[in-house]
Fold this sequence. Notes:
Blueprint: E1 2-7, E2 17-22, H1 31-40, H2 43-55, E3 65-68, E4 77-82, H3 92-108, E5 113-117, H4 128-139, E6 148-153, H5 156-165, E7 170-171
Parallel strand pairs: 1-6, 1-7, 2-4, 2-5, 5-6
Antiparallel strand pairs: 3-4
Helix pairs in contact: 3-4
Amino acid sequence: MRWQVYQGDILDVPADVLVCSANVFLTLSGGVGGAFLLRYGPAMQEALQHYLTERGIRHVERGDVISLPPYGSPYRAVLHGVAVNGAYESSSIIVAEVLAESLRKAAALAARTVALTAVATGFGRMSISDFAMGLRRVVGETFPPLERVTIGFRSSFDAEELLALMPELERV
């Protein structure tokens, strides 16, 4: 499996599945979720709210990965990985669990390519170093038929930091 680092808009990376960092309330309020909402419209946000309503809950739990249809986007599915709690706290262990579960779900959808964000590093304020510690736990695993995972960063500084911490990743 190839692991890549991309600097730019992750929504521009061709992939079968998108893994979007999510908060426990499943609001597309910023980061990739906010960009998804602007680019593809409100259908995904409505589906996320419906997800909560039909289960009679106000929020999901940290560690959950919610799989939804693409709602106008080019992906087979969009996975909403919740790596933070209500106060936007996380850990490298939670990041590893969310990434692994996301990749298992993508593989179950017969995805070959995944585009994902550095979960918990935006509003979650997790450092790239801590994200890398979580990512290291997952990079050695295989998730057939996945062939390529691309991690996207808006910031060139963050992309360069991850590449310096994990030289086994490819630059795209």
